[in-house]
Amino acid sequence: MTTDALLAVDGLVAGYGAAPVLHAVDLTVAPGTIVAVVGANGAGKTTLLRALSGMLRPSDGRITLAGEDLRGVPVEQLVRRGMAHVPEGRGVVGELTVDENLRLGGLWRRDRADAARALDEVYQLFPPLARRRRHLGHQLSGGERQMLALGRALVGRPRLLLLDEPSLGLAPRVVAQTMALLRRLRDDTGLTVFLVEQNVRSALRIADQGVVMALGRVVTTAPAARLRDDAELRHAYLGF
Ligand code: ATP
């Protein structure tokens, strides 16, 4: 394990009942990189994100963010420490406007001036949200809801963005735009992204590193380009 990792996971065991879903997962995420977690349905990818973001309490193992142990740290504290989780299904509040949803992402911040700046930046990043700022969450299209969920996370100026299936239900053009945006954020702001994705090709195209999971374990970690080019590995674990 490298000491300069932004996120380090060591021997993580977690699940929903007596039988664990994750069996001693080890991985590291270097700052300013995009890491894509890929693998078959049921491999444990979503469970891993839930354990990282504090939604699920691990039964064993260690998670550190910038060297700080996250054991027992409440979810709202994780956000303050720079971790933002955009869950599958996105969690947009349908009864609130776009603007209110975005402001939720910065409510906890003490630096009100910077929270306002971050909000403006998100509107610049996503012009459709600026146009629909008074619309309610449930009036948005799938692509717009995805933008809103991402935007809300970005208003908190995270160091580490945990994304679960950002391409789910989106048209191919919107998937491509989302992926390009993640790369731009990494390049321009040094954002670190930990991405779970069924759309393996798209994810490995933008990622620096790929983590392949099967049956609750990490079976391999490699530069994304190598995973893309390794036909044997792709056939064995990724189905293409
Ligand atoms: P998918 O892409 O299908 O979501 P995944 O790799 O994200 O797959 P998980 O959703 O983490 O996998 O599921 C891993 C295992 O945990 C599966 O066997 C699943 O049935 C089980 N599981 C997931 N969520 C729950 C839950 N809330 N309660 C009990 N078991 C669960």
List the helices and strands and how they pair.
Layout: E1 7-15, E2 20-29, E3 34-39, H1 45-52, E4 60-65, E5 68-69, H2 75-80, E6 83-86, H3 98-104, H4 112-125, H5 127-131, H6 142-155, E7 160-164, H7 172-189, E8 192-196, H8 200-206, E9 209-214, E10 217-223, H9 224-229, H10 231-238
Parallel strand pairs: 3-8, 3-9, 6-7, 7-8
Antiparallel strand pairs: 1-2, 1-4, 4-5, 9-10
Helix pairs in contact: 3-6, 4-6
Bound molecules: adenosine-5'-triphosphate (ATP).
Adenosine-5'-triphosphate is lined by residues 16, 21, 39, 41-47, 198.
Features:
Rossmann fold, 4-stranded antiparallel β-sheet, globular, binds adenosine-5'-triphosphate, 6-stranded mixed β-sheet, 10 strands, 10 helices, alpha/beta, 240 residues, 25% strand, 2 domains
Task: Describe the protein in words.
The chain has 240 residues and is an alpha/beta fold. It folds into two domains: 1-82 and 159-240, Rossmann fold (3-Layer(aba) Sandwich), CATH 3.40.50.300; 91-157, no CATH class. 39% of the residues lie in helices and 25% in strands. The chain has ten helices and ten strands. It has helices at residues 45-52, 75-80, 98-104, 112-125, 127-131, 142-155, 172-189, 200-206, 224-229, 231-238; strands at 7-15, 20-29, 34-39, 60-65, 68-69, 83-86, 160-164, 192-196, 209-214, 217-223. The strands form two sheets. Strands 6-7-8-3-9-10 form a six-stranded mixed sheet, with helices on both faces. Strands 2-1-4-5 form a four-stranded antiparallel sheet, covered by helices on one side. A hairpin with a 2-residue loop joins strand 9 (209-214) and strand 10 (217-223). Helix 3 (98-104) packs parallel to helix 6 and helix 4 runs antiparallel to helix 6 (142-155). The longest helix is centred in the C-terminal third of the chain and has 18 residues, at 172-189. Adenosine-5'-triphosphate binds next to helix 1.
